[in-house]
Amino acid sequence: MAKKEAPQTPEKTEGFSAGKFFQGTKEELEKVVWPSRQQLISESVAVVLMVTLSATLIYFIDKLFGWASGQVFG
After folding, report:
1. Which residues of 24-36 are buried (b: 16+ CB within 10 A; e: fewer)?
2. What is the torsional sign of CA 13, 19, 24, 27?
3. I need a surface site. Which of 2, 42, 46, 55 has the fewest CB within 10 A?
4. The pTM is what?
5. Quick one: CA dihedral 29, 31, 35, 36, positive or negative?
6. How far apart are the C-alpha atoms of 74 and 67, rounded to whole Å?
7. Measured on CA atoms in the order 44, 47, 49, 52, is the torsion positive or negative?
8. In angstroms, rounded to a whole number, what is the distance separating the alpha carbons of residues 47 and 53?
9. Domain boundaries along the sequence of the chain
10. pLDDT tens digits, 31-63
């Protein structure tokens, strides 16, 4: 039977470095593909419309159940 190698331990780091953290953050943010102004506006409008539609639907369902419970228990 082959002998298994011991798992390697990761190298020890010197600790937290604010400079390296911000440099890494900046590098990652440069990789982000930001939406265009038009895309941002259209998707924001779509989100607001869906939230409004969902809230309205929940409101009417709540009113329906309130009316129904009033008929049964009132």
Report:
1. eeeeeeeeeeeee
2. negative
3. 2
4. 0.57
5. positive
6. 10
7. negative
8. 10
9. 37-74
10. 999 999 999 999 999 999 999 999 999 999 999
